[in-house]
């Protein structure tokens, strides 16, 4: 969860060449993989510190650590992975990105997104979503309040900071069309590496952000924003972002590992739901470069939204996958038929208590 929704542009662009790239990759067995380690489980038994043999397992993040990932860090810190016989290392993504690392088998698990998995599936890339990290889409278009952007109609005549992604353009057009607004009247500016706060002071009026991070940061900085959540304009845009992903081969070859990893991960996110302050401290301790005030405020806002109105953390609804897939097809964003039943599974979540 970066300061802006830059990940959208990056995620959509990798899928076109991914299928070809995978042909050149040698599938690994799900070992440590590449990237930079961010956290590692302690190889001690949870019941008294007695050493035991733990299985090394890696999970790769989508971006730098943030409150989307707190459940993973909590599962490490609280010994939930150890209880399942796992020593989990949390990695930051390499140059190819988390999805490529998971799809190729370089690592068994990673943080992904419904939109990128949808595109990957129609290209024959066997990514599978195992759990929704957050039940409802917390992203949307944000602008400083002095730009007077109160609805999609107000995008007209304004400068949008993005990365030229087809999905960005389609989402913006989709919600502007509902209000009879003309998307061609929006000036698109490439933000480059600038964050939201730098860009709106420099040359843009609005951008796509995750409220849980950038929106909270704006509040802490005393820089009020107007936030237009995309889910409020279409049920099809209330998709899962982010998700926990694996690949079909991992599920086929070692379903027990998938089950054990997801049981502990679920416990980590449930811990973060029930103990937001303590979970924030765990993330701060694991990643000391993060702003503690931002982490604590973000965690307080986000923790209830992990599970929200679902019966348990991680559950995914077929209609959410179907609706978003149909929307992508209607926007000519897919290059083939999408079978939502193969894109996700709830089978490896623990049984609800």
Automatic annotation (TrEMBL):
GO terms for biological process: thiamine biosynthetic process. Residues 66-279 form the SsuA/THI5-like domain. Keywords: Signal. Gene3D superfamilies: Periplasmic binding protein-like II. PROSITE patterns: PROKAR_LIPOPROTEIN. The keyword Cytoplasm does not apply. Pfam families: NMT1. Residues 1-32 form the signal peptide. The keyword Zinc does not apply. PANTHER family: 4-AMINO-5-HYDROXYMETHYL-2-METHYLPYRIMIDINE PHOSPHATE SYNTHASE THI11-RELATED, THIAMINE BIOSYNTHESIS PROTEIN HI_0357-RELATED. This is ABC transporter substrate-binding protein. It comes from Saccharibacillus brassicae.
